[in-house]
Amino acid sequence: MKCNAKIEKISNFYGRPIYYINKPIPLIGHIAFGIIDRGTNVLQVRPSTLCFHNCIFCSVDAGPNSKFRESEYIVNEEWLAEWVNDVANVKNEDIEVLIDGVGEPISHPKILKLISLIKKIKNVKTISIETHGGSLSLQLAKKLEEAGLNRINLSIDSINSENAKKLSGTEWYDVNKILKNASEILKETNIDIVLTPVVIPEINEKDMDLIIEWAKENHAGEKSNYPSGILIQKFEIHHFGRKPEKIKVWSWGKFYSWLKILQEKHNYRLIVKPEELGFKDSAKLEKPFHVNDIVKSTIIGNGWLKNEYLATDENCIRIISIISKEDLMIGSKVKTKIIRDKDNIFLGKLY
Question: What CATH number is given to the structural domain containing 168?
Fold first, then answer.
C-alpha cells in the first residue's frame, strides 16, 4: 500500500498551527498523539496536544507559553478508535484505555464521542482520563459517565489557592471549585477519582498533607478497588520540560523515604505497586523498524517540536519524527535513519 498521507491545518493556538490528524496517517509512532503501547494491559491514548495551563513544572512544555513547540495536533476520534480496536485485538485480553497526553485530553472537541467509541471495543474494560480539572464540572462528568468513562486521574498539586495558581501558571485556575466539583462527582456518579499530584521540593511538598486528607475523606480510589486514592509523583527534569528556579530534584531514595513518613503520619497507603493498580505485562506490538534501519519516508507536515518534521514510511505503517534543521518540502521523499524505536515511538534523522 502506498501512503498518501497529509495533515490539515484547522486553526491556531497562541501562534502555533493546529493540525488535524486523520486517515490514513498512522497513529502509532509519535509520543504526542495517537497510541502508545508500553507492553502492559494499559494503553495510552492521546487525542489532543492542546492545553490552557502553563504549569511551571510541565515535563512536556505544554500551554500558551510553550518555548519549544512548533505545532499542536487534534486526532479524528473515529480514526483513533479504529486504531485502539486494532491494538486491543493484539492484546487479546481485558485492557484499560488511559486517555492522557502532552496536553489536556478534555480539550478534544469530541472527547465524549471518542470515549463512547472506545467503550464499544469488546476487551476494553476500563476507560480513564487524566486532567488538571480546569474545565471539569458535574454536568460534564455525567456526560463522560454516560459515554463510558470509569475513572478520572485528577492532577491536583496544591489545595492552597495561591500556590495552585502559581503551579498552574494561570490566574484563572480555581482549585477550590475543582475539588468541590470532584467531591460532587464522587457522590453523584459512578466515576472514580484518583489524585495524581507532582511533588516539587520546597514548593508544594507541605501541601501534600491536605491533599492526602482530601483523598481519605472523599473515599478517592475506592470505586476502582485501589489501595489508595492518591498517587504522588516525583518531579523530574525533562529535556524539553520546565524547571522552577532553584529547585533541587530529589533522588528516588529520598522520595520514597519522604513517602514512608507521610504514609505513617496519615495512616494511609501512599506507596503502591503497579500490580495493585491492575497493571500487568501484556502482548506488545511488534516494531516494524529498529535503530539504525534506513526507512524510505515521506514528509507530511511540520513536527511537534522545533527542528522536527512529521513523516510516514512509504506503506503508512508508522509515523516518524525526523530531526532536521534543513527546510524540507511537504511531500518530499527522504531516507530516514532510525535513531529511537522504544515502545514503537520512532525518531529519525536524514540519511
Answer: 3.20.20.70
